[in-house]
């Protein structure tokens, strides 16, 4: 003979329904991002960018690109020259945090190369809009 333990949520009243616990909906990621942005703005003095001045961002200069077969890549060795699709004198691309930020020309500064910025893109998409 088996005995069953009574279900605590079961009710002897046929019309009674057990109340389900109310779950709070998870906070949306956008709300989280908005809260962080608001906190950062408050920390920066109500919209001032001064709190961001010490951040370090990666800056990359793209001289050019090309496509090569696997066989061509495997044939590369010391002294090999890779021809790029960009022409001599054509502006190089400046990327800040993986966004196309500006264009410029290569310059020599003593023993190092540099880039003189000739155009800054407003939208970060490589155009002047």
> Which regions have little confidence, pLDDT < 50, spanning 5+ residues?
2-30
First-last Cα distance:
82 Å
CATH topology of the domain at 53-129, by name, is: Surface presentation of antigens (SPOA)
Strand content: 15-25%
CATH homologous superfamily (4th level) name of the domain at 53-129: SpoA-like
> Biggest sheet, strands in spatial order?
1-2-3-4
What is the N-to-C order of secondary-structure elements (H for helix, E for strand)? HEHEEE
What class would the helix/strand composition place it in?
alpha+beta
Helix content: 10-25%
CATH architecture descriptor text of the domain at 53-129: Roll
Q: Identify the CATH class of the domain at 53-129.
A: Mainly Beta
Shape: elongated
Report the radius of gyration as a whole number of Å. Answer: 31 Å
Output mean pLDDT: 76
User: How many alpha or pi helices?
Assistant: 2
